[in-house]
């Protein structure tokens, strides 16, 4: 059978991949997080597969959770982030200002899930939980409010609600006599009126105490409740980055405190880009990363297994023998300079699934274009991928990888564009600190050596450049050697994956 009739590697974007569950490869990060009482952060670079892991967990919770454990999956696409800004606690530190609004969201979701579980199983609902449910129905005018109602117009209407200063009493009849007057309130109305903001914040604080009391009387919660958060960086752009930092920091603070407060019977799990976590203003961020973070990291073996699992899914569908090794897909075991195809691909990826999947798709598409050449006199049949076409597919892949890096860092580190321009102007795969300073000067920016070294450290930390360490002849890149720290040296080398997009030449070629 012609290999082009069946070969595929699936889609690059997990959120658009309807078949992800059919060929998902688990590298163990979910098991580590769920089996730990303290881990609640899943961190990874853009393209590392966080959304794929989130989606697979959401669609297959029984593979990871206990038999009766519950999972709430919250993906924040088209979410009203601005409402959080009206619920801030102005007396708190910046990292805690948005903690209250997220605690409110978490507690409402827990009560909703636990009530639904008890009702479905026919169990008796404790009085405190029944009262909490009744309050939520009263406030939001829905049987069980969705998160879009919780943080939306219905929430804003609470700014006109007069609650007792001590909060509502679950045991009294206050809930029955509670009236919401004045209709819905617009975001702009609350935003312009600090008195409404203060009343809204105070009311939410009182309701939180009531919800906490209801959950505490049911401790320990059985079954456990997991709440997974994905795409919390949806508003991460030039306009909203500063407010997004505070909102995301508030979610992490709320998740940390709730995980500890309820002794891991309520388990928030936050999927977040590693680069975004690094710029958040959070107390003891390094300790939090070490104690509560699980890094979504890939090595050569797991990365190749992921790609082969995808390829073999389509092979099986077409009754093709299982592929045991990536190199066997190609017509040659070695390319130029005796390089194996798998090694060539890996050296141009950054140890992320998205990179390798994209490169393989480019190779397959390049072969399909050749097979459909309108000027070819004969029709070719291919039993294997042509290794020589890897070179033809590389420029498009390299441009894609460069754009991925720009998308990843353009908001929190806009100088990355100048760095790419400077490297491109140098024109060589090998660069020095002095060359970088010189090119910035030509662009009208005076760059002191200390600042230039900080730029080089940034480039190294993101695997854009590497260097030789000591007497070693191997170029060390962070993606391949994650424990390697930055070293000031005479010569740095640009990652092979973006050489073509920056039009760089080997030093001997330039000479």
Tell me the layout of helices and strands.
Elements: H1 20-23, H2 29-35, E1 41-44, H3 50-59, E2 70-75, H4 99-121, H5 127-140, H6 147-150, H7 153-156, H8 174-177, H9 187-192, H10 194-216, E3 225-230, H11 241-261, E4 266-273, H12 274-278, H13 285-292, E5 293-295, H14 300-317, H15 341-347, H16 353-371, H17 389-409, H18 416-426, E6 430-431, H19 433-442, H20 449-461, E7 465-468, E8 475-476, E9 492-494, H21 496-499, H22 507-510
Précis, in short:
The protein has 511 residues and is of the alpha/beta class.
What does this 3D model show about the protein?
The chain has 511 residues and is α/β, with parallel strands linked by helices. It folds into three domains: 1-24 and 298-409, no CATH class; 28-295, no CATH class; 414-511, Orthogonal Bundle (Arc Repressor Mutant, subunit A), CATH 1.10.10. It is 47% helix and 7% strand. It contains 22 helices and nine strands. It has helices at residues 20-23, 29-35, 50-59, 99-121, 127-140, 147-150, 153-156, 174-177, 187-192, 194-216, 241-261, 274-278, 285-292, 300-317, 341-347, 353-371, 389-409, 416-426, 433-442, 449-461, 496-499, 507-510; strands spanning 41-44, 70-75, 225-230, 266-273, 293-295, 430-431, 465-468, 475-476, 492-494. A five-stranded parallel beta sheet has the order 2-3-4-1-5, with helices on both faces. A four-stranded antiparallel beta sheet has the order 6-9-7-8. α4 (99-121) crosses α10 (194-216) and α16 (353-371) packs antiparallel against α17 (389-409). The longest helix has 23 residues, at 99-121. The radius of gyration is 27 Å and the shape is globular.
């Amino acid at each position: 059978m012609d290999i082009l009739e069946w070969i595929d590697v699936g889609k690059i974007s997990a959120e658009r991949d309807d078949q992800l569950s059919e060929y998902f490869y688990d590298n163990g990060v979910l098991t580590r997080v769920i089996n730990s009482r303290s881990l609640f952060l899943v961190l990874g670079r853009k393209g590392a597969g966080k959304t794929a892991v989130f989606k697979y967990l959401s669609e297959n919770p029984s593979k990871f959770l206990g038999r009766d454990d519950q999972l709430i999956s919250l993906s924040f696409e088209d979410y009203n982030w601005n409402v959080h800004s009206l619920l801030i606690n102005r007396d708190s530190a910046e990292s805690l200002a948005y903690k209250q609004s997220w605690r409110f969201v978490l507690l409402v979701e827990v009560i909703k899930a636990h009530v639904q579980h008890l009702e479905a199983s026919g169990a008796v609902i404790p009085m405190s939980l029944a009262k909490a449910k009744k309050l939520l129905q009263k406030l939001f005018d829905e049987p069980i409010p969705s998160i879009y109602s919780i943080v939306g117009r219905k929430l804003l209407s609470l700014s006109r609600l007069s609650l007792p200063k001590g909060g509502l009493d679950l045991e009294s009849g206050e809930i029955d006599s509670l009236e919401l007057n004045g209709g819905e309130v617009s975001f702009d109305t609350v935003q312009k009126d600090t008195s409404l903001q203060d009343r809204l914040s105070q009311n939410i604080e009182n309701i939180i105490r009531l919800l906490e009391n209801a959950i505490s009387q049911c401790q320990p919660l059985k079954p456990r409740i997991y709440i997974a958060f994905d795409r919390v960086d949806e508003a991460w752009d030039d306009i909203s980055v500063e407010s997004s930092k505070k909102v995301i920091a508030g979610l992490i603070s709320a998740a940390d405190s709730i995980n500890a407060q309820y002794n891991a019977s309520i388990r928030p799990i936050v999927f977040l880009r590693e680069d975004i976590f690094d710029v958040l203003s959070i107390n003891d961020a390094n300790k939090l990363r070490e104690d509560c973070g699980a890094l979504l990291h890939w090595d050569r073996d797991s990365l190749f297994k992921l790609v082969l699992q995808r390829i073999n899914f389509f092979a099986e569908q077409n009754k093709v023998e299982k592929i045991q090794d990536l190199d066997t897909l190609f017509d040659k075991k070695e390319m130029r300079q005796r390089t194996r195809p798998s090694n060539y691909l890996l050296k141009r990826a950054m140890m992320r699934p998205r990179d390798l999947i994209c490169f393989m798709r480019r190779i397959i598409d390049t072969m399909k274009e050749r097979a459909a050449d309108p000027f070819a006199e004969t029709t070719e049949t291919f039993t294997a991928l042509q290794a020589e076409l890897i070179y033809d597919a590389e420029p498009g892949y390299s441009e894609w990888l460069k754009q991925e890096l720009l998308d990843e860092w353009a908001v929190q580190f806009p100088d990355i564009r100048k760095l790419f321009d400077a490297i491109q102007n140098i024109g060589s795969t090998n660069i020095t600190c002095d060359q970088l300073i010189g090119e910035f000067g030509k662009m009208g920016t005076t760059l002191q050596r200390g600042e230039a070294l900080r730029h080089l450290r940034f480039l190294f930390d993101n695997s854009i450049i590497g260097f030789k360490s000591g007497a070693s002849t191997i170029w060390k890149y962070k993606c391949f050697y994650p424990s390697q720290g930055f070293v000031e040296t005479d010569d740095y080398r640009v990652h092979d994956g973006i050489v073509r997009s920056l039009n760089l030449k080997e030093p001997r070629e330039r000479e």
